[in-house]
């Protein structure tokens, strides 16, 4: 599960620096005592302005803290690889597309 703040934007003319704080909780299995991983991060966006419209051209995730069983992330990577053979899809640090 992911929870994020709304975008926080520092705007200066045609330059902007947007970011959002993100919390992530990942659990392998439904039982309350199954392995869990959590982290807090800052998502930093790279905006460009063209013809008066803003577009996001890149996103970086900067982990601030982590806690729990890192094996949860590794198990998620194996599941994604099985679901999309040959895709090369891997979760970013702290983020799993299956959560």
From TrEMBL:
Residues 1-57 form the SnoaL-like domain. Pfam families: SnoaL_4. Gene3D superfamilies: 3.10.450.50. This is SnoaL-like domain-containing protein. It comes from Lentzea xinjiangensis. The lineage of its organism: Bacteria, Bacillati, Actinomycetota, Actinomycetes, Pseudonocardiales.
């Amino acid at each position: 599960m992911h929870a994020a703040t709304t975008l926080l934007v520092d705007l200066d003319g045609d330059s902007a620096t947007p970011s959002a704080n993100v919390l992530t909780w990942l659990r392998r299995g439904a039982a309350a005592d199954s392995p869990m991983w959590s982290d807090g991060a800052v998502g930093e966006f790279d905006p460009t302005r063209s013809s008066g419209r803003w577009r996001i051209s890149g996103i970086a995730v900067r982990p601030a803290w982590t806690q729990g069983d890192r094996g949860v992330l590794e198990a998620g990577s194996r599941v994604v690889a099985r679901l999309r053979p040959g895709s090369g899809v891997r979760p970013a640090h702290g983020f799993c597309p299956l959560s």
